[in-house]
């Protein structure tokens, strides 16, 4: 596992440099889910594939930017699902973005996750690794990731990050979000999954939601690349992640790009979600 973490660190340093200095415009390519790719999406994906190709324990990879799996090492044991540059559409307005990684053994069900990693590219570059617990590292001026802290969620938080198109919310979901704000929770939503979930983790707790809506009834966020890795992080930090009724990590996708509604948060906030959706 250590070799995979080191490959992610090398990738993060290279991607940070690309974000700072490369072309932030759109390419002429369309990815497997119909999104027009930024040139940085393509480059970030290539960087990660190059670094993972050096790691013999990785059997295959599956990227948010590709339609299917890419084989690497026939004797490898791990599959890595990743989003190379989540929230990349925020780069042209200079907001924080990130990379997300799920390390699987035995297929891409949530139950097969062995570790999860994400990187935040903001004013500082921070890397979070969840395995037994959740540890945060920060890139220093020498190009090294130094340990900063172990992250633990409080039982109840103060932040609310409600995603998706509000006009398409179910009435019960709107009532839930309105009630949470009425209880004094503060809005913290940038449109970037990585920085928004990172902020809730570092500020002690709260709720991030991306529900089923009338326009996207199966949710928008992808299980393998986005939802499962962050569900793993939140559980290891003492929180929970559900699809409204069920634990997210009990789900099994039938296709690499399958999506799900999702709610991440402290235990108090997730109890409120369960009550709303029961």
From TrEMBL:
Its cofactor is Mg(2+). One of its GO terms (cellular component) is cytosol. It is found in: Cytoplasm. Pfam families: FBPase, FBPase_C. Its EC number is 3.1.3.11. Substrate binds at residues 86-89, 189, 220. It is an enzyme of class 3 (hydrolase). GO terms for molecular function: fructose 1,6-bisphosphate 1-phosphatase activity; magnesium ion binding. InterPro entries: FBPase_C_dom, FBPase_class-1, FBPase_N, FBPtase, SBPase. Mg(2+) 2 binds at residues 83, 86, 226. Residues 4-148 form the Fructose-1-6-bisphosphatase class I N-terminal domain. Pathway: Carbohydrate biosynthesis. It catalyses: beta-D-fructose 1,6-bisphosphate + H2O = beta-D-fructose 6-phosphate + phosphate. Residues 154-277 form the Fructose-1-6-bisphosphatase class 1 C-terminal domain. PANTHER family: FRUCTOSE-1,6-BISPHOSPHATASE-RELATED, SEDOHEPTULOSE-1,7-BISPHOSPHATASE, CHLOROPLASTIC. Homotetramer. Belongs to the FBPase class 1 family. This is Fructose-1,6-bisphosphatase class 1. It comes from Sulfurospirillum halorespirans DSM 13726.
